[in-house]
Amino acid sequence: MKVAVVGATGMVGEVMLQVLAERNFPVTELIPVASEKSVGKEIEFKGKKYQVVGLQTAVDRKADIALFSAGGQTSLDWAPKFAAAGTTVIDNSSAWRMDPTKKLIVPEINAHELTAADKIIANPNCSTIQMVMVLAPLHKKYTIKRVVVSTYQSITGTGVKAVQQLENEYAGVQGEMAYKYQIHRNAIPQCDVFEDNDYTKEEMKLVRETKKIMGDNSIAVTATAVRIPVVGGHSETVNIEFNNDFDIAELRKILHHTNGVVVQDNTDTYTYPMPLYAEGKDEVFVGRIRRDESQPNTVNMWIVADNLRKGAATNTIQIAEYLVAHKLV
Ligand code: 2RA
């Protein structure tokens, strides 16, 4: 497979290269792509050195698959050009996610929707992916009525500038600000910009993308997204109200048997997921599973995942693996 990685020098792009190598994805030729300022830079992949090229050069080289993590505008401008050249694009930005003609894919849930005609495929938002990985099997069994989610998001979701801001604040150094406020020793209840309804784009991604991925607009979702000074991954408290009652042991067993989900849940041994331990892993970790005693048919839980891996790079590459395995590219 001739594979282009668009945004190869960025945070997610670097993790994509790492995961491609780790999973031994069948790359016969790698095309690292970045903005003009990075063209000519050298990157190493599986012991071989490659020169970073610009977007038009990459289009002209007609990759089989292009993995994008280069921002929404670059995706809007360039994904169609790659697709027109015969390349299948899997895009990490929000550009195409809610486009009714584009598929929004978490392989464990809806990869079966993919066809060879899908030339631009959207990778969901990181905080959505880890939540729906848990919601999907439970929806199948108990039918979800409403979800209330609060996120505690890693600064790596914002990118290098945010990591640098935190390091500067640790060191007591004034530097460029990724956020409006100090993030060190703080929690900022704003991830991305505010929409007209006073929710942030991040919160509305959780609402809108969940419905699309699970194919059910009847699921009510409300979200609060918070940024915290953590690097290993995103954490979420999720309160799920079902249409039907459930058995907590059975619910835990369903999650235990869900591919890609690991249950870490034992109060006797203080066992529960934490971003410090989720970092670098591809699974979605769930714990603190307990009945909501304030209302019937409702459960609380805590979900943690590495936002750069299952939340972005690994999910993207799992989509590519599905395309290859099913001869859709
Ligand atoms: C964030 N989910 O964490 C968004 C984009 N990666 O900022």
UniProtKB/TrEMBL annotation:
Residues reported to bind phosphate? 97
Semialdehyde dehydrogenase NAD-binding domain boundaries: 2-117
Q: Which domain of life is it from?
A: Bacteria
Which Gene3D superfamilies has this protein been placed in? Dihydrodipicolinate Reductase, domain 2, NAD(P)-binding Rossmann-like Domain
The pathway entry for this protein reads as: Amino-acid biosynthesis; L-methionine biosynthesis via de novo pathway; L-homoserine from L-aspartate: step 2/3; Amino-acid biosynthesis; L-lysine biosynthesis via DAP pathway; (S)-tetrahydrodipicolinate from L-aspartate: step 2/4; Amino-acid biosynthesis; L-threonine biosynthesis; L-threonine from L-aspartate: step 2/5
Q: Which reaction does it catalyse?
A: L-aspartate 4-semialdehyde + phosphate + NADP(+) = 4-phospho-L-aspartate + NADPH + H(+)
For this protein, the record's InterPro entries field holds: Asp_semialdehyde_DH, Asp_semialdehyde_DH_beta, NAD(P)-bd_dom_sf, Semialdehyde_DH_NAD-bd, Semialdhyde_DH_dimer_dom
- Identify the enzyme class: oxidoreductase
Q: What is its EC number?
A: 1.2.1.11
Give the annotated active site: 126, 234
Residues involved in NADP(+) binding: 9-12, 37-38, 307
Record SUPFAM superfamilies: Glyceraldehyde-3-phosphate dehydrogenase-like, C-terminal domain, NAD(P)-binding Rossmann-fold domains
Could you confirm whether the keyword Cell cycle appears in this record? no
Q: Which PANTHER family match?
A: ASPARTATE-SEMIALDEHYDE DEHYDROGENASE (PTHR46278:SF2), DEHYDROGENASE, PUTATIVE-RELATED (PTHR46278)
Quaternary structure note:
Homodimer.
Its function, per the record, reads: Catalyzes the NADPH-dependent formation of L-aspartate-semialdehyde (L-ASA) by the reductive dephosphorylation of L-aspartyl-4-phosphate.
What's the protein here called?
Aspartate-semialdehyde dehydrogenase
Q: Which organism is this protein's natural source?
A: Flavobacterium sedimenticola
Q: What gene is this protein translated from? A: asd
